[in-house]
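quick q for whoever's on today - can somebody do inverse folding on this one?? i tried earlier but teh output was garbage lol. tokens:
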């Protein structure tokens, strides 16, 4: 499965979008709250997953 660069976000970009610290992002990964995509040594997050978290956060 190929991941389009436009549909994936790097760690720092993801943390900024979610307005959280990078450490929180790594903790969420360990808790399987947000699952990253690993491409070689690169870690990326699906934009769709980030948008779901953002919409869940604003729905409350």
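ok took a stab at it. sequence:
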């Amino acid at each position: 499965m190929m991941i389009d660069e436009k549909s994936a976000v790097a760690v720092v970009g993801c943390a900024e979008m979610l307005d959280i610290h990078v450490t929180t992002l790594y903790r969420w990964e360990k808790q399987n709250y947000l699952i990253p995509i690993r491409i070689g040594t690169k870690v990326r997050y699906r934009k769709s997953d980030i948008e779901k978290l953002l919409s869940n956060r604003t729905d409350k």
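fwiw The chain has a mean pLDDT of 90. also The helical segments are 11-18, 22-30, 47-59. so keep that in mind when u check it
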